[in-house]
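JOB MANIFEST
job_type = single_chain_structure
chain_count = 1
residues = 503
[input]
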Amino acid sequence: MKYFKYILMFFFIASVSTFSQQKELTIKQVTIESRSLYPKHLAQLQWRPGTDAFTYVEYSNGGELVQENARTGNKQSILSLLKLNTKLNEFKLSPIISFPSIEWIGNDDIRFWNGDSLYEYNFNENSVKLLNDVSNGAENMDISSDNSVAYTIKNNLYIAVNKKQYQITDDKNEGILNGQYVARNEFGIFKGTFWSPKSHYLAFYRKDQSMVTDYPIVNINYRPAKVENIKYPMAGMTSEQVKLGIYNIKENETVFLKTGEPKDHYLTGVAWDPNEKYVYIGILNRDQNDLFEIKYDIANGNPVDTLFEETNPKYVQPLHGPIFVKDHPDEFIWISRRDGWNHLYLYNTDGKLIKKLTNGEWEVTKLNGVDKNGDNAFFTCTKVSPLDRDYYMVNLKSGKMTKLTSMPGVHNVIQDEAGKNFLDTYSSLTVPYNVNLINREGKVLRKIFSAEDPLKDYSIGKTKFFKLKSKDGYDLYCREILPANFDSTKKYPVLVYVYGGPG
């Protein structure tokens, strides 16, 4: 596999001075108090739907939600923690200690958690409404588009619909887990429940690990430390067995997909058909070198079609399922490293390859989305340099690519609903944290925010990048950080860090 070896830069040391300064960093600062060295940033930065405005949270003065007009820069506080708690108090609800994590669910509505309850705040009416409740001890909460919530308690799965709780599974064997991630977070699996687009169905993992060997872990949070056993399938030993269930909310019934043998395969990239008739799964063998992308009928659990197969002598790493194109329910984007480099492919739902969207000896690191009309896809990649993350747009019909970010560094871009304006957050070795407003031609319309360097008054050693050659002739990128006040005539101890994983 042709992988770039790149260095992920921790953003709190991204801005490095090459000159000796007055202050010396302490061990306490760079460990226990390391957050004090982070640059200031715009917390919870997101677009307000249906507007030209974006919002973020400022945690001074107890915390407040700030709105800023993208074009004019007009800025105003639209909701303070005090105002929110006053409204909660009117309904005799518990106050919130700090400004909550919020999500815009409409032009004038946000939703947020307060304990075990999900609330909505409406800006037009200045009102708070209870959307849903989950049971005490709930974990792995997953909210649907209509504010239903899937969650787990111990090893079983529950849902809350219209403030009523329902138990979906009832496995007494604690070795069987429902609604939780499987395969130890590999292959892009980071959760165990998947709501359908219209919230009529819930897909969920059922993992039977009762036959898997116990593996001892030392928990050092206790004094003295305690040994706790986890289930871990060592190489050559029995692995977990996973199923995917489809729960029908209206009928209160579960259908398990017929994924066949052997039972210790991996079920990855769970994706819903936009019309809620099918579920797509990548079935990967335990050797992790052979993947089949299969479409299933949720009504009976039967496989409908095998769209394609991906093989590699060494390793297949599916991190995403199909990403369907808006307004084109019969087309999806597939992300694959089948040619040695991670790229985007456009398929139809019959498994026919329409076109390869990106190509070259570089990696697509993230598919950020598709615009409102399904004409263009947006992605982050290493096309310029493996040390950078740049943002591009590709037209799904013509294949024309447009680079939208211009400054060197690592870019994290948030697009508006229409895909016309973008909040470009970036950092580099010399830029701690900047946010620019850019358009789809890549033009910087205005600077939104620029953070000061939190290390500017400290004595920091010089940082430089250099390259080594791999056996097959590829550049391996390295970072060298010298001690402060470095003296080239002296010898210093060296700490060498190498990431040895597949990425």
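[summary]
The two ends are 10 Å apart (CA to CA).
The mean pLDDT is 92.
exit_status = 0
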